[in-house]
Amino acid sequence: MFDKLKNSIIPMLKCLIYVSVTLLFMVSCGSAAQQQYKSHAVKKGETVSSIADAYNISEETIYNLNPESRNGLKANSILIIPSNNIISSGTEKNNYREHRVKRKETLYGIAQEYNVSVDDIKRLNKELYSRGLRNGERILIPASSKSTEVIINEADNKLPSGTQEYKVQAKETKFGIARKFGISIAELDALNPELGDGLKKGSIIIVPEDTVMEDAEIDEDKFQYYEVLPKEGFYRLKVKFGLSQDEIIALNPYAKDGLKEGMILKLPKESDYSSSDVYTDINLEDRIDNKRMKTVALMLPFRLPGSPDDSTEGDSDLIKRDPTLRVSLDFYSGALMAAEFAKDKGIPVTLNVYDTERSESKVASIISNGNFKDVDAVIGPLLQKNVEKASDMLQRDKIPVFSPLSNRDMAMNKNLFQTIPTNSILEKTMIQYLVKHSSGRNIIIISDSKRAKQKEMLLSAIPTAKTVVPRGGGYVGSSDISAVVNSEMENWVVLESENPVLISSAVNVLAGMSPSYKLRLFTFDKNDAYEWHEVSSRRLAKLDFTFPSVNRKIDEDERNSFLVSYKNKYGVLPNRYAIRGFDVTYDVLLRMASEKDIYDAVLPENQTVYIENKFRYKKSDTEGYCNEAAYILKYNNELKFEVVE
User: Fold this and answer.
1) Strand-pair category, 96-100 with 37-41
2) CA-CA distance, 444 to 430, in Å (whole number)?
3) Where is 579: in which H helix or E strand?
4) CB atoms within 10 A of CB 345
5) What is the pLDDT of residue 202?
6) In 3D, which of 355, 392, 394, 388 has the Cα closest to residue 372?
7) Which tens digit of pLDDT belongs to each residue from 486-514?
8) Which of 8, 12, 127, 432 could form a disulfide with 275 if both were Cys (CB 3.0 to 4.6 A apart)?
9) CB 118 within 8 A of CB 67
10) In angstroms, how far is the first alpha carbon of the chain from the final one?
11) 251: part of which helix (H) or strand (E)?
12) pTM for the full model?
């Protein structure tokens, strides 16, 4: 495949790749007078007009500061109003200490431990404004505040209209208090600009005069707080949590008038492996609405020597010696095809290609010396550390960066999209499938010590599962399996190991058992041990071997328009990296064309499906977005992988 690709792609690449760009940096310093504001809690019957008259300002001023007010006002909602009062607080804290971050520690917990605010910690560790804590890092902690009671908004001792002072009780949180008074976290912060991320018992804060709920606490063992996202209605919550509108209102009576952005809801706690399984496959080709020019930067580690005029003699040897170059060329060929498909749909595309040379410093140089402010999205680089670097440098401009091939846990930023599901997502997908179909089936787990974590995860999700411990030699015998199988129901055996001896012994024992036992084999991880010569493909097929996968495998006989076009252009069928390049790039282009902003095109209940890959992005637990769309595949009797789910 590479010999046929090189003659058409490498010369073109040498013309496209940005070798050197000079950029003059202009740094300006200055200061601006800070406009002062205050809050107004809307009373029943008040209108934008009456509030504007009361403060001697225009209605447009209110609309500009509070865009949501154009949709009408609700009692207890908070408006930002220009004010001449200056609210100031804070003291200099010159003393500090070091703290080494432990696993699972949070900023709020550390702030509580040292009796300081989260904002105080962030002021000394400015990188924490843009990312979360990292295990083992050392951060600076300011000296403890002497006062245990905080008075907020004390200017002239005058409270904003329609508000009251409230003393924080033990165990109360910002979410609970916001829910109690029927406001959002943003509105609570607007009333209390010095509040920070956490609350201290005894703090005095400002809240609306009226409550909508009696308590500011919930049973955290059974329930959780949920903040309503922009454009989110009851349907989307039903998709996410499987709760009807009536069920949500029963727990949150104030939601009967509808949901609004930032509203705090009390919802039943989700199981880690519960899944509504309501995902809608959408075709973004039918939703093309934004046909302005799409500029995409494609950053790949070609490491191509010479200039565009250099001879391509020796390129074949270079390709054979460098597997990373082979992957880059294949991915690039698929991305080019995606740009052509997009143009056929009326989407103008500019594809800027950069050679990152597998170097983090080269990535930094490309971004520093290039005009990336006009770039709509970046695809690449391939290597994890390089894509993290690109994301870090581009996050301030909110330029989305798509990691095309890494499935490892990454240092996420708000603008980083991980396009390949991680191993933990594949494991979760498999457990969800097993939980969903476990009723009436005998679940058996065979696991060695290196996969103890996966064993515990499955036992937590299906406590009735039986376990088989390998013998001292790292294998299982027929008596080990026969002791736990059930002849009256299906037996689903989950095999967790990377040891070819254990895998081959388990497969051989299971495939050799009496046909009266209905047996099916599963794994969370189809690793290289399943390719060992002692592991028979036919025996795996006999056991309906089932596993999670990032992508499906298409049949080369499929008359797919991409396959046909690719073969016509390059003379060969695309491999998985070329298909990956097409799927990732085409999805990015269509998402940008379907919405004004690519971030608006991220809807967790919708997934897009292409040649071999599908995409369903969800906000990660830290920052950024992870693709959670994975396949469940089965090895069938024709020795092909078929999609089960």
Assistant:
1) unpaired
2) 15
3) helix 576-594
4) 14
5) 83
6) 394
7) 989 999 999 999 999 999 999 999 999 99
8) 432
9) no
10) 32
11) helix 245-251
12) 0.63
